[in-house]
Amino acid sequence: QVQLVESGGGLVQAGGSLRLSCAASGRTFSSYAMGWFRQAPGKERVFVASISRNGGTTYYTDSVKGRFTISRDNAKNTVYLQMNSLKPEDTAVYYCAGGAVTAAQAMGVPGLLDYWGQGTQVTVSS
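-> C-alpha cells emitted (126 positions)
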C-alpha cells in the first residue's frame, strides 16, 4: 500500500509561484509513474501533468505548458509541481496520483492510477 501526501498549496496573487510536493510512503515509489490532477469548484477533476518512473518523460495539459514543471526525486520518494505565472483559473484542489503505468497512461487513463492523495488547495487571486 502506498500513501500520498500533498503539501505546498496556499493563496497567491496572479503572476506568483508555488511549488507543490507529494510525498509517498513505501519502497516502490520509483516503480510508479506519477501525475498531478486538479479539480476546480463545480468541475470535474482533470489532468495537469505526469512523469515517468525515471523522470525522463513528462506530459502537460496545454493550459499549463511553459508555466508548470513536474519533477521527481526517487531518493526522497517525492514528486513536485513547480507552478509559475499563476492565473486565477489555476485555482483548484490539486491531487497527486501514482500507479504502475506509463506517464502517457497516467495522462490518458487516470482510472488506472491506484493511489491518490487527499489534495491541497491552490487559490490564485486576481
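The helical segments are 103-108.
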